[in-house]
Amino acid sequence: MLANVKSLTVWGIDGYNVDVEVDISFGIPSISIVGLPDQAVKESKDRIRPAIKNSGFDFPSNRKMVINLAPADTKKEGSYFDLPIAVGILIATENLPADAAEEFFFVGELALDGSLRPVKGILPMAIRLAETGKSKLILPAENAMEASLINGIKAYPVQNLRECFEFLTGKKEILPASCNIEQLFESKNKHSLDFKDVKGQAYAKRALEVAVAGGHNILMIGSPGAGKTMLASRIPSILPSLILPEALEITRIHSVAGILKEGLVTERPYRNPHHTISNIALIGGGGVPKPGEVSLAHNGVLFLDELPEFHRDVLEVLRQPLEDGKVSISRAKGRLTFPSRFLLVGSMNPCPCGWYGDNARQCQCTLGQMLKYRKKISGPLLDRIDIHVDVTSLPPNLLMKEQDEEPSETIRQRVEAARKIQQERFEGTGIFFNGHMNSALLKKHCALDDECRMLVRGALDALYLSARAYDKIRKVARTIADMENSQAIKPQHLAEAIQYRSLDRNL
User: Fold this and answer.
1) Which domain CATH number covers 309?
2) Model pTM?
3) What's the rounded mean pLDDT across residues 49-56?
């Protein structure tokens, strides 16, 4: 007998439909799975056989079984198809009526005892299901809340194959899962780390506030122990609150990557990969491409500590996402695009020993060693970083001083006020921050008067800045003007923006 069960899987961060066809006939006893399955899919037959038996059903061991996953020309991976294959076998062996599963889609991994284990990528599958006008999805109980985030989706949580059978035959009632989006968002902006814990460093704090307010990439340069990592780890506490579309987009990426801990991501991501990371792990890829760290940091922060210690080829792959806000990966089976609009925060020492320019200790590096160290970061990559700021070590009197610093909540309110101005300015353009302005918007919103032009001209001549660096300065100046609620860019705004090019001045 032939059975057809509907299922779903993911390609990149998008879901797509899969028809699971099960045909049981007379012949040499065997089980074959076709339709470009990967190893995990091929091994499903060894999980499904004991799962069906341990759920109280007979398995047709003396028959020839062919399982086809359509469309057959698309690679199938993972353990998504255990449940639909098992349901198809139950229909083909007449344990289930043929029409019992017509309205439903099935996704889930089976344990040997018949219980269901959660799978990754449920959210993009639910989005795909809603796009096709369908609504009923049977899936593991642990995944039900994630699927119910999408309006109109009825996610039926089941614990095991037996429970699924009883639900389909009407012997047991299962209500679709539901979630309270408002309740999930209650935990947002509750950060354990706060800028009030950082003593001094007013200049660095100001630069970080400007960077967050305008979506500008930033690089901190300072000696060991100056507080670069401490400052970077507190950036999430001043980021604006997530809105639901942003949260769903982040959740979609994290779901596919298999790192989703709860049903919905309610805080902006903060990713801090080690400097031994490979370029594929950073940018994404693999045989069946998966999102990398730049995509996992989408709508959040990517912090690269000790930037020159990363391999040069790893850093160079950052060029496209920094410029375009997305990553395109081409493979023989097709081309995938992952979103990667993140705030890049880097830190580095001023020299190999770390003590150049420090008042407490003397640098032992030669000029050649310093230049070699700094050249680990290429000019094109450095050009894409809007702000370079020096983080100096605190003198003992400031370090020992007991004084309350400005809390993150106060800084975040100023950041949100500046971002609100930008959102109104760029409404309908698909751009939200000054740091993402294109040439046309830059010309329209960053016009300079004669006094400002003279100031910038002097900086261009003295620092030998590139055209991209010139645009970066104007974008940062526009953000500083927004923070002061100024309609026009003034000389003091430009002067501050130029001060945030410390590496250009030093080199």
Assistant:
1) 3.40.50.300
2) 0.88
3) 94
